[in-house]
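Lecture 7, part B: from sequences to assemblies.

Below are the input chains for today's worked example.
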Amino acid sequence: MTDSGIGIDIDIDTSRNAPATLHDVAREAGVSLATASRTLNGSTRRVKDEYRKRVLEAAARLDYSPNLSAQAVARGTTTTVALLVADIADPYFSSIAAGVVAEADTAHLIVTMAATERDPERELELVRTLRGQRPRVMILAGSRPTTDPTGGALVEELRAYERSGGRVVLISRNELALRTVLVDNRRGAEALARELVGIGYRRFAVITGAEGLRTAADRVDGFRDGLAATGGELRDADVIRDAFTRDGGYSGMRALLERGLEGVELVFAANDVMAVGALSAIRDSGLAPGTDVAVAGFDDIPTVRDITPALTTVRVPLEELGHRALRLALADTDADAEGPVQTEVVLRESTPGISR
Amino acid sequence: MTDSGIGIDIDIDTSRNAPATLHDVAREAGVSLATASRTLNGSTRRVKDEYRKRVLEAAARLDYSPNLSAQAVARGTTTTVALLVADIADPYFSSIAAGVVAEADTAHLIVTMAATERDPERELELVRTLRGQRPRVMILAGSRPTTDPTGGALVEELRAYERSGGRVVLISRNELALRTVLVDNRRGAEALARELVGIGYRRFAVITGAEGLRTAADRVDGFRDGLAATGGELRDADVIRDAFTRDGGYSGMRALLERGLEGVELVFAANDVMAVGALSAIRDSGLAPGTDVAVAGFDDIPTVRDITPALTTVRVPLEELGHRALRLALADTDADAEGPVQTEVVLRESTPGISR
DNA sequence: CAAGTTGTGGGAAGCGCTTTCTCGACGACG
DNA sequence: CGTCGTCGAGAAAGCGCTTCCCACAACTTG
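Predicted structure of the full complex, as structure tokens:
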């Protein structure tokens, strides 16, 4: 087509520029567009072997690859799932993302990803943008403050999206009345508290995220419950709030140290990245984490096995969260038939225990 | 439309089901489809303020969101960039992904992501699938073995994609003659070797990935160069090959320890996740990493600041890699005008030095 | 053997958009 | 006052597909 016409031109397809269309394939195979379409996608209609073969060969010869956008507009439905996370580089979210991507792959869906950077306004805007894609599913991970004023608009937007046939799944943020993969944060933290008291700790401090962060709040509440039941002590002044990130954990711990530990034996950070930051802060101040002051986290992100001291934490099956979110979205039922995701306390060296 | 017609129904739009189309907006605004289209996207044509206003209001009232698939098919071009990584949960790739997503955001592009799981066949298949999306850009991160038999098919596929107007960018895998964001692995490793010899180390071992992995090979070669220039010693028997992952690092180190260190003072792992695994292996065997045997890595993934001992490594600006990959794809030039990405040696406690 | 059934190919409408082209309205100019 | 330009709205032709519908042939039936 594009070559000058003179000269030997064997592989005609490689000299073309635009990708082959179904039209090209049909022409090449000497059949109608309809027949070509029916052969190259799982239509219910049968196509005689003779034709089918010709179409398949033509498609291979032209290196045909169906235009997904065109299919989407013709079919009125896409094969896309949109995933919103706070921060892709955060191991918590990247593990979840890995699960979503893996599950999507088995369902022959394509994942598009965006990062909210923990900014509620950005999140809202991203949801709006991504709606344009008409994804089959939208998965939102990472809780937003319940106090946020744009929360209503977000819900409204998600509802509108659902009304138009989309499926929304939230991961670990049940504040909205939408499909949710629930993590039993409360029970997990409670179990952790019990175990820690069991190995001898009595005086605790907590480093958590901003007020209104549901996940963080549940974990702290659960922890409190566990302590209350077993006689552990957590004073209000020993609950520190900071950013829900590694650096937040660092500076929260720093603040605690500067003020003076005042008998605190163990610091519970509401997630692992914060705990990791806290560990570094302890070390930087010349103390030995684990022995001088114990630390526990939540999530069991992959790296905490490898830090020293290895971190005591509550395991959340993060990749599984991603898998479940997508399965839930694709399921017929509204509710999560599998129930809340169970967690498991993992004691490691960062809480060696105290013998009394 | 769907409601029974009786009763007060104020916000008409929320009761609809299908998302509003441009057609709906045009009708609502009392203008033609063309005018609506021109107002709602940056066309070159002017639309009179009066009409413009009516369209904008109608769009807002109907909560109109343009169907990206339809736009793509009408315009013959999408706003998508496809990103292929080996493993999303790996901090190396998730950092790169974060960079790509951030850069895509500023360019108003949408990122779709897939994981090859380090399987060359899968990679090829994913490229084929993703071509159907007609992405503007495809970014492939994570090197594949140069020895892989499907390599030719991959290149052919990518070439075909480029011929049809797409842009391909590879990250740190220059084996193919395609646009590439190059990391100066060789120079980085060389500088690392020099510094390590400078602080007293003489006998080295290396844990690296499978033969044929370009990135790994460059790092090892550079390391060798640096040693050769400064009198460090690396025996062939002390080069261990294993998987290019955390667990590969662990088992590689394990193998080295079981065989006996035989005077090796420092182990260089070809990437940080391997180094982290090696550190754990050392610890698990009862030795003290850093003091009994030093360890160095490569990449400077975020977590290595927080492990103990903090890991000596070569910093690669991972997020920046993602940014540059997309910028390069979108640039007019073929070559990377910014030159190879520079690295920087970061000495930390895992290599305290040896005084002689 | 006429009158249904089935099975399968192809024509054409249509999905939601963009963009070319047509054409009327209006102002400037000689 | 007639003629040209220019501006800008709208009709309509696509973009690459899917799918409804019709046509026709080959079979069944009673």
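Note for the exam: Confidence is low (pLDDT under 50) at residues 1-16 of chain A. Keep this in mind when comparing with the next example.
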